[in-house]
Design a protein that fits this description.
This protein is an alpha+beta fold. The protein is built from 1 helix and 4 strands, in the order E-E-H-E-E.
Length: 81
């Protein structure tokens, strides 16, 4: 199995999360897309940063949650911000 980098994009919905309270509203996220960023770590991080400029990150409805993962035999989270 070839090692790959994947960018996962989730959109925050207006659906209240399980830990939603009036004092601290939290919203659920729904999977939006998965983007294969190839095998080169530096290029994958550069592309992930480019996506972060296009998709406004946050926890409010309409914003996005991004995560970069390195896959071999299991997934490993990679920081890109």
């Amino acid at each position: 199995m070839e090692s790959r980098f994947s960018l996962n994009i989730a959109i925050v919905t207006d659906r209240p999360a399980w830990d939603w309270t009036p004092a601290a509203p939290r919203f659920g996220a729904s999977h939006f897309a998965r983007v294969d960023l190839g095998t080169n770590r530096d290029k994958a991080i550069r592309k992930a940063r480019e996506f972060a400029t296009r998709f406004p990150e946050g926890t409010n409805p309409g914003e996005f949650m991004l995560s970069l993962t390195y896959w071999k035999c299991h997934g490993e989270s990679v920081e890109f911000a």
